[in-house]
From TrEMBL:
<dbReference type="InterPro" id="IPR012800">
    <property type="entry name" value="Cchol_dOase_actb"/>
</dbReference>
<dbReference type="GO" id="GO:0008199">
    <property type="term" value="F:ferric iron binding"/>
</dbReference>
<dbReference type="GO" id="GO:0018576">
    <property type="term" value="F:catechol 1,2-dioxygenase activity"/>
</dbReference>
<dbReference type="InterPro" id="IPR015889">
    <property type="entry name" value="Intradiol_dOase_core"/>
</dbReference>
<keyword id="KW-0408">Iron</keyword>
<dbReference type="InterPro" id="IPR050770">
    <property type="entry name" value="Intradiol_RC_Dioxygenase"/>
</dbReference>
<feature type="domain" description="Intradiol ring-cleavage dioxygenases">
    <location>
        <begin position="106"/>
        <end position="281"/>
    </location>
</feature>
<dbReference type="InterPro" id="IPR043029">
    <property type="entry name" value="1_2-CTD_multi_dom"/>
</dbReference>
<feature type="compositionally biased region" description="Basic and acidic residues">
    <location>
        <begin position="118"/>
        <end position="128"/>
    </location>
</feature>
<feature type="domain" description="Catechol dioxygenase N-terminal">
    <location>
        <begin position="36"/>
        <end position="102"/>
    </location>
</feature>
<feature type="region of interest" description="Disordered">
    <location>
        <begin position="102"/>
        <end position="128"/>
    </location>
</feature>
<protein>
    <submittedName>
        <fullName>Catechol 1,2-dioxygenase</fullName>
        <ecNumber>1.13.11.1</ecNumber>
    </submittedName>
</protein>
<comment type="similarity">
    <text>Belongs to the intradiol ring-cleavage dioxygenase family.</text>
</comment>
<dbReference type="GO" id="GO:0009712">
    <property type="term" value="P:catechol-containing compound metabolic process"/>
</dbReference>
<dbReference type="Pfam" id="PF04444">
    <property type="entry name" value="Dioxygenase_N"/>
</dbReference>
<keyword id="KW-0560">Oxidoreductase</keyword>
<dbReference type="InterPro" id="IPR000627">
    <property type="entry name" value="Intradiol_dOase_C"/>
</dbReference>
Length: 283
């Protein structure tokens, strides 16, 4: 049987917008941000826009092109995609600068809470999956070295064709997603496949900007992860593979040297990666 997979910008955009509104809108309401903060931030961003217009002598044609494009981003449901690709990395940097444990990076638009529990060792595959089998083993520890019993590793990634379940057609709902819960030793073992380099959806407004600017839409292959444990700060990260063409020009600027894996090819052609995670205690 062949499974046809596809993802249009508007379908994946709409799914990402629904996802955001279901999970995060309560935290995002402008009314919950103090007035002087909104005043400062809105004023500075608008002043930067005005300065750019003056510096580059922006025309009415260019202003109207911007207006049309902003309308299209909303129509395509692409605000989560656009913001997570071009803005989130700076927010993440500020939010996690104090940490002593693992480096994190952006979440991106395709996390879905509530993935199936898969034990301390298990597979994320919900169908026969082409691609290179990969096992990721590691230990969740606190900054003092103690293994964190009850810690959870929540992973999501693309398939061998570069698509995420729930943001494209043709995959089982929770394929290549799962929550792994560790015991007293803090150990987990995740059976999956090597992810593929990923082109963000580029047939919508975000893609139109990328093409108009002469950029590219690629992200290097990555495994997304959220690691949590009682009494510790949630770590959101992505793990990358050495040698990927896009490690040095990720469209989302989310690669960090600390997030590079050291894959060991096994005699059977599969890949073993060992990567431990250290979480900061909440203060
Ligand atoms: C992704 O898979 C991703 O990780 C980001 C940051 C943006 C779009 C799709
Ligand atoms: Fe991703």
């Amino acid at each position: 049987m062949t499974t046809v997979e596809s993802a249009t910008a508007s379908a994946s955009g709409a799914a990402a917008t629904d996802r955001f509104q279901a999970d995060k809108s309560p935290f995002a309401a402008v009314k919950d941000v103090p007035k002087d903060r909104v005043d400062t931030l809105a004023h500075e961003v608008l002043s930067a826009v005005h300065a750019t217009i003056r510096k580059h002598q922006v025309t009415y044609d260019e202003y109207n092109a911007l207006k049309a494009w902003l309308i299209q981003v909303g129509a395509d449901g692409e605000w989560p995609l656009f913001l997570d690709v071009f803005v989130e990395h700076a927010v993440e940097e500020v939010a996690t600068a104090h940490r002593k444990g693992n480096k994190g990076t952006i979440e991106g638009p395709y996390y879905v809470p509530g993935a199936p529990e898969r034990g301390a060792e298990g597979s994320t595959l919900e169908r026969e999956e082409s691609g290179t089998p990969l096992v990721w083993e590691g230990v969740i520890r606190s900054t003092d070295g103690t293994p964190l019993a009850g810690g959870k590793v929540d992973v999501w990634q693309d398939d061998n064709a570069g698509f995420y379940s729930q943001f494209s057609e043709g995959q089982p709902e929770w394929n290549l997603r799962g929550v792994f819960t560790v015991g007293d030793d803090g150990k987990f073992r995740i059976h999956t496949i090597k992810p593929q380099p990923y082109q963000i959806p580029h047939d919508g407004a975000t893609g139109a900007l990328i093409e108009a600017a002469g950029w590219h839409a690629w992200r290097p292959a990555h495994i997304h992860v959220k690691v949590s444990a009682p009494g510790h700060e949630l770590l959101t990260a992505q793990l990358y593979f050495p040698g990927d063409d896009h490690n040095n020009d990720d469209i989302a600027q989310a690669v960090k040297p600390e997030l590079m894996l050291d894959p060991q090819e096994q005699p059977d052609g599969s890949i073993l990666v060992q990567y431990d995670v250290t979480l900061d205690p909440t203060s």
